[in-house]
Write a structure and sequence with these properties.
The chain has one domain: STAS domain (Transcription Regulator spoIIAA), CATH 3.30.750. It has 5 helices and 5 strands, in the order E-E-H-E-H-E-H-E-H-H. A 5-stranded mixed sheet has the order 1-2-3-4-5, sandwiched between helices. Helix 1 runs parallel beside helix 2. It is elongated. The termini are far apart. The relative contact order is 0.14.
């Protein structure tokens, strides 16, 4: 019988400005870790600070996410698409790096990936307050609406509108 992975937890990292939520994931992260730690922390900071910055470190002892945790992660991101000024994800886990690259364009804030060896650089970057250069921004608006189908139908020429007399 195999041993159960260590119960996951988020460690809150201290010593950051008030608008920075800094956490490190350890073990197998489950829904409880999101609902008792990360979600309340992010929502409290958004309420207090407006836009926030997120430093999300995937620790060396990280074992993965449960399905419930993955759902809570997606829900947190979707509910707060415009509330993150910056997100720094620090990890050497390749599937997480690929997932961040896939979903980063949906967020309005700047998203950067760092390896674990670049943790100090990630900490410096997340604390910066200077705006990002426009040419560096990802040109995707999360609030874009798809036009109704009627707007895409070409107009009917006048001669086709006339019916022959009966």
């Amino acid at each position: 019988m195999s041993a159960q992975p260590e119960k996951g937890r988020f460690e809150i990292l201290e010593g950051f400005p008030a608008d920075v939520v800094a956490i490190e994931a350890h073990g197998l992260i489950d829904r409880e870790a999101y609902e008792k730690t990360l979600i309340p922390l992010v929502e409290e900071r958004i309420e207090r600070e407006g836009k926030v910055k997120l430093l999300y470190v995937i620790g060396e002892d990280f074992k993965g996410f449960t399905a419930g945790a993955a759902w809570d992660d997606a829900r947190l991101g979707l509910l707060h698409l415009a509330d993150f000024a910056r997100i720094a994800v620090v990890t050497d886990v390749e599937w997480i790096r690929l997932g961040v690259k896939l979903f980063a364009p949906l967020l309005r804030g700047r998203v950067r990936l760092f390896s674990l060896s670049e943790l100090e650089e990630a900490k410096r970057w997340i604390c910066e307050n200077r705006p990002e250069p426009e040419e560096d921004a990802i040109p995707v608006a999360a609030d874009h609406k798809i036009p109704p189908l009627e707007d895409m139908i070409p107009p009917v020429p006048e001669e086709e509108k006339k019916f022959p007399p009966a």
